[in-house]
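hey m, so remember when u said the tokens were messed up on ur end? i reran from scratch. heres the input so u can diff it against urs
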Amino acid sequence: MEGGAYGAGKAGGAFDPYTLVRQPHTILRVVSWVFSIVVFGSIVNEGYLNSPSESKEFCIYNRNPNACGYGVTVGVLAFLTCLLYLALDVYFPQISSVKDRKKAVLSDIGVSAFWAFLWFVGFCYLANQWQVSKDSPLNEGTDAARAAIAFSFFSIFTWAGQAVLAFQRYQIGADSALFSQDYMDPSQDSSMPYAPYVEPSTGPDPAGMGGTYQQPASAFEPEPQGYQSQGY
């Protein structure tokens, strides 16, 4: 296959972790991974409070369990998605098929854009519920609640950045494929009106296109040796 297809080197090359960690999309994945930990970790640890008059815990976001559940669910799933695509980044140079690489990049575009949308919804949802909620007892959990909202907002841009970088990788791969088609060997193109050149063969002609090729007799053939009688 062609080297450098869709932003990676030739298949079968040695794994280079230094090159991997320097790639922009890898850096954004790691940052998104950390942000997801902050979001669901903040809600799980300090997002549920106890009231002195109530024995049951309640969500710090306007006592709405759906808000806390959404933040935790999106955070955990984003955490797992980051790990999945980090593993794909490691395996990507070993993919020998250009079509498989194209599918991987297209899935990266779709998944990243989808998660950017989910984080946008999560930021709006948590911010709204926090705005209308009453102060928690002794202001417990306020820092964690605000941190979850802030890092939900930051995650929108990290996932959107991954989608943009994946789209750029897709464009590079598409341009490389178009370049290869434009400079294809004409003799290998079956749509050309002429037949490809075939080297003449000294063997029999199976198609009956003019018999067999025979080497012309040399004009300088040696004369037979020995004495020959002459007739007078």
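this time it looks ok to me. The mean pLDDT is 78. if urs says something different then somethings off w ur setup not the seq
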